[in-house]
Amino acid sequence: MPLVPPNTCTGILSVWNDMAPEQLDFYEQWYMTEHFPERLGVPGFRSGQRYEAIEADRRFFTFYELDSPEVLFSDVYVSQLNSPTQWTQRIMTHWRGMFRTVCQRVERRGNAIGGYAAVARWEQPVEMAADLAQRIEMGLADPSAVAVDVWRATARQNAPTQESQRRTSPDRTISAAVIVEATRLANAARAAAMLPQIASGLTPASQVGLYRLIALQDSEA
């Protein structure tokens, strides 16, 4: 089934994390054979994209597109969080540096998916203007930058669950994020360097990272 056009999805679940190096093989097995299918089987989950750092403070960045943020408070999804599988229980103890945030998509411009991404996140309060994605797109003026996505955290976040309590430290949240997807690494790096200038007027981002796409999967619903 083809991907649902991204602009129809108003909810985002954003995740940044590290993983104990000795668990990386199991982490990949768990993610691709169990976790992605499990999450994408939840009604309202439409797609998931996984990235690995080229230059960033967290090795992994993942996000899910949702019909709306309310999907993350549905009985089906919360039940998964409170009934982690044996594999999930095992991998969560090796999770490191988690940022996990329920977000509202402010705007996405462009429907293509690039192989590289400049990813800016804000941890302090910041107001994301409704036209920010358009301003970034125009400021970059780069046909290789195929999509610009702007998110802000919702007021409501998930309460601690059986899954999250197995991680070694409490989850942190972001306040907002901007993702610029590009077809080439050099163009994504250029976007990362230009973002602070283009997004002038905003509080500086807490982190701007450079990532490569490693997996994309859509819902079977």
Would you kindly provide a written description of the structure presented here, covering whatever features stand out?
With 221 residues, the chain is α+β, with helices and mostly antiparallel strands. It is built from 5 helices and 8 strands. The protein has an 8-stranded antiparallel β-barrel. A hairpin with a 4-residue loop joins strand 2 (45-55) and strand 3. The protein is globular, with a radius of gyration of 16 Å.
CATH fold label: Alpha-Beta Plaits
CATH class group: Alpha Beta
Gyration radius, rounded? 16 Å
Quaternary state reads: single chain
Major β-sheet profile: 8 strands, antiparallel, barrel
Could you outline the blueprint of secondary structure elements for this entry?
Blueprint: E1 11-19, H1 24-40, E2 45-55, E3 60-66, H2 75-81, H3 86-92, E4 95-109, E5 116-122, H4 132-140, E6 145-153, E7 176-182, H5 185-198, E8 207-218
Antiparallel strand pairs: 1-3, 1-4, 2-3, 2-8, 4-6, 5-7, 5-8, 6-7
